[in-house]
Amino acid sequence: MGMSSRAAPRICVLKGGLSVEREVSLSSGYECAKALRVAGYEVIELDARGDVAQRLVEIAPDIVFNALHGRWGEDGCVQGILEWLRLPYTHSGVLSSALAMDKARSKIVYQEAGLPVVPSVIALKADVMAGHLMAPPYVVKPNNEGSSVGVYLVTEEAMPPVLADDMPDLVMVEAYAPGRELTTTVMGDRPLGVTDIETDGWYDYDAKYRPGGSRHVVPADIPPEIQTACLDYALRAHDALGCRGVSRTDFRWDEARGLGGLILLETNTQPGMTPTSLVPEQAAYCGISFADLCRWIVEDASCDR
Question: Catalytic one among 74, 145, 181, 250?
Answer without folding.
Answer: 250
